[in-house]
Amino acid sequence: MTATLSAVSTRTGLALREVTLTYPDGEARLTALDEVSLTVAPGEFLAVAGPSGSGKSSLLAVAATLLTPDRGQVLIDGQDTGALSPRERTALRREKLGIVFQQSNLLASLTAVEQLLVLADLRGERPRAARERAAELLASVGLNGPKQQRRPHQLSGGERQRVNIARALFGSPSVLLVDEPTSALDHERGTQIVELLAAVTRDHATATVMVTHDRAQLDRVDRVVEMADGRLLLGAEHGVDL
Ligand SMILES: Nc1ncnc2c1ncn2[C@@H]1O[C@H](COP(=O)(O)OP(=O)(O)OP(=O)(O)O)[C@@H](O)[C@H]1O
Known about the structure:
Protein name: ABC transporter ATP-binding protein
Number of strands: 10
Radius of gyration: 18 Å
Oligomer: single chain
Order of helices and strands: HEEEHEEHEHHHEHEEE
GO molecular function, one term: ATP binding
InterPro entries: AAA+_ATPase (IPR003593), ABC_transporter-like_ATP-bd (IPR003439), ABC_transporter-like_CS (IPR017871), ABC_transpr_LolD-like (IPR015854), MacB-like_ATP-bd (IPR017911), P-loop_NTPase (IPR027417)
Strand order of the largest sheet: 6-7-8-3-9-10
Helix content: 25-40%
CATH class: Alpha Beta
Strand content: 15-25%
Keywords: ATP-binding, Nucleotide-binding, Transport
Bound molecules: adenosine-5'-triphosphate
Organism: Streptomyces tateyamensis
Shape: globular
Number of helices: 7
């Protein structure tokens, strides 16, 4: 399934401009992101690597507009998210962002196809068209036929992650944010998920950011940036050609 040309042509992806984020730390503030600048183009698959505590999750939360930086800008398709009201930001998140969390946060009582249809229902989409699109999306991530009718506990970890990815894609996002997608999977299944993310990035023209500890998966992305102490390492924006 390929994103339509009109949708693609208005996309510019994700840009962070000199973003600084601090958290309260007793009397002081802890700097989790220190003037981080980064751009991710439509159709580009970027990995963010770095040690624990280096700021990877904070970067993802800021890009998701879930945390507001102290300074700097987060632009999604050229829109400065800091200039939006909370209501507008929520709307932008719904229209432009797909998020795949580390832990599968699927609803236990719903089948795979229903996990996607909940979103369609919230948007007031026509049920029949939504059901067809959900089934098509699930098939495109490798979940076919009867598996679409299974509940999370009847699926493997890798299959649950595929449902998460399909659900994140359901709103045709411009930006796809992925947090440690392979942490609960063995190497082979982890590789399959990262390959799937590379394919959906290409096919759906998303600007994809994946946070990962799993260095074995880094050769499947377009570009890697390394974080240390809240900073992107020097030259990281130009990436490592793998
Ligand atoms: N809610 C919070 N309040 C205070 N400090 C925080 C908060 N969240 C994160 N931090 C601190 O900010 C820094 C960056 O944390 P962050 O979670 O972004 O790192 P990370 O690279 O994602 O780590 P990990 O790989 O362990 O998930 C760390 O020093 C962390 O302790």
